Amino acid sequence: MSIAVDNVTFAAGNTLIVNGISLSVEKGKVLGLLGPNGSGKSSLLRLICRLRKVRSGVVRLGGSDIALISRGDIARRIALVEQQATTDTQVTVIDVVRLGRTPHRGPLSSWSVRDDAAVLDALTRVGMQDRAGQLWQTLSGGERQRVHIARALAQTPSELLLDEPTNHLDIQHQLDILGLISKLDVTSVVALHDLNLAAMFCDSLAVLQKGEVVAAGSPEEVLTQELIERVFGVRAHVQKSSVHGRCNIQYMAG
Ligand SMILES: Nc1ncnc2c1ncn2[C@@H]1O[C@H](COP(=O)(O)OP(=O)(O)O)[C@@H](O)[C@H]1O
Ligand SMILES: [Mg+2]
Predict the structure, then answer these.
(1) Strand, helix or coil at 178?
(2) What atom of ligand 1 comes closest to residue 208's alpha carbon?
(3) Fewer CB atoms inside 10 Å of the end CB: C or N, the chain?
């Protein structure tokens, strides 16, 4: 397993935010994290990259307990695209993407051809290669999101964590970004709100509710009419997709 979360608990004070979660993702696959606001998706992503420490349980990367991996090794290996990532406004697009190379560079090593190649490749993958010199503050919300994803890709991670990466994106760019993530040779965990996009692009899904996993499996196994009504409070009609294990959801008003 590339990522394995084993009975992990996280609390703020006396409030349990992540309550005994176990899940795993095979190398190169995409796991979608679903769940209502406040269900613990962002907290779980932070635990997986050790931005937060687990209260109990273990997170393993490639079989090793992350509590025992050095911060530098984690930074070279895992990239996180946060929901509300902030960036200094006085910088250009390429400056932001170059930050992704930081974990790979020693304190005295100079910028290498390899760093340049990783930055250009990342910009190209998100379709922002022609905007390298543009000031961050002049970008639209969707463009900023794509640049943050490029920064994560420039890090050349083997595991990529994304917290609602399609927020602020128009439908074409939502499809482009999720299509890109699903084709990368990288293990990904993606928190998403759109159940149809999750069913289209994720190999497996885990649904969180109040810090617990209430369903996990293929999109078709997880996204049942009953689960959508119980967890999200919405009536829906679920159709089998022509693609194995996937499905389409049609919401019903009222
Ligand atoms: N550091 C913290 N202190 C107190 N409460 C927190 C903290 N971090 C998260 N929470 C709470 O934990 C719950 C889960 O939050 P979060 O992981 O952001 O959920 P999601 O990403 O699914 O919306 C929310 O009720 C949130 O207010
Ligand atoms: Mg969140």
Answers:
(1) helix
(2) 22
(3) C
For residue 39 and ligand 1, the question of a CB distance below 6 A is answered with yes
Sketch out the chain's domains with CATH numbers.
3-252 (3.40.50.300)
- The structure's pTM equals 0.94
> Ligand 1: distance of its center to the CA of 71 in Å?
24
Q: Which amino acid is at 156?
A: T
pLDDT in tens, 186-205: 999 999 999 999 999 999 99
Least confident range from 24-33, 120-129, 242-251: namely 242-251
How many CA atoms lie within 13 Å of 202's alpha carbon, on the beta-carbon side? Answer: 32
What is the DSSP pairing of strand 159-163 with strand 187-191? parallel
Locate the ligand 1 atom nearest the alpha carbon of residue 35 and give its number. Answer: 22
Distance CA 81, CA 78 (A): 10
Copy the structure tokens of residue 160.
């990529």
* 242: exposed, middle or buried (Cβ count in 10 Å: 0-12, 13-18, 19+): exposed
Q: Is 225 helix (H, G, I), strand (E, B) or coil?
A: helix
Question: Letter for the amino acid at 234?
Answer: V
Return the sign of the alpha-carbon dihedral for residues 173, 174, 180, 184: positive
CA 18, chain centre distance (Å) = 17
Alpha-carbon distance of 250 to 230, in angstroms, equals: 16
Tell me the chain's radius of gyration from C-alpha atoms. 18
